[in-house]
Specification:
Blueprint: E1 4-7, E2 10-12, E3 18-24, E4 33-39, E5 46-52, E6 57-59, E7 67-72, E8 77-82, E9 91-99, E10 102-105, E11 109-113
Length: about 120
C-alpha cells in the first residue's frame, strides 16, 4: 500500500508553466509504474503521462512535447513539468501508482489555465 500526495496546482495564464509533484510514502523501487491522470468537470478521468522504473515514459497525444514526467527515487517523488499550458489543460490532476494489479490514487490538485 502507498499514500500519494500531490502538490503544485494553481492558476496560470495560457502559455505559462506549472510543475506538479507527487510524494509517495514508500520507495518508488517497489512501485511498478507511476503516472498522472486528469479529470475536468463532467468528463472522464484521462491518462496524461506515465513513467516506469527503467525511465521509460509514455504521454497522451494531447500533452506530448509540452509535458515532461520524471522521477527521483531518492526522494520518492514524481514530477510533472507542464509547459505551454492551454485552457483545455484545466482539470484536477491525480497522481497514480500501480503495484501488481492494484492502482492507488492521490487526492488530486486543481490546475486552472486562464487569462
Amino acid at each position: 500500500q502507498v499514500q500519494l500526495t500531490e502538490s503544485g496546482g494553481g492558476l496560470v495564464q495560457p502559455g505559462g508553466s506549472l510543475r506538479l509533484s507527487c510524494a509517495a510514502s514508500r520507495s518508488l523501487i517497489s512501485i511498478n509504474v507511476m503516472g498522472w491522470y486528469r479529470q475536468a468537470p463532467g468528463k472522464e478521468r484521462n491518462f496524461v503521462a506515465a513513467i516506469r522504473g527503467g525511465g521509460f515514459t509514455n504521454y497522451a497525444d494531447s500533452v506530448r512535447g509540452r509535458f515532461t514526467i520524471s522521477r527521483d527515487n531518492a526522494k520518492n517523488t514524481v514530477t510533472l513539468q507542464m509547459n505551454s499550458l492551454k485552457p483545455e489543460d484545466t482539470a484536477v490532476y491525480y497522481c497514480a501508482a500501480t503495484m501488481a494489479i492494484t492502482t492507488y490514487w492521490g487526492q488530486g490538485t486543481q490546475v486552472t489555465v486562464s487569462s
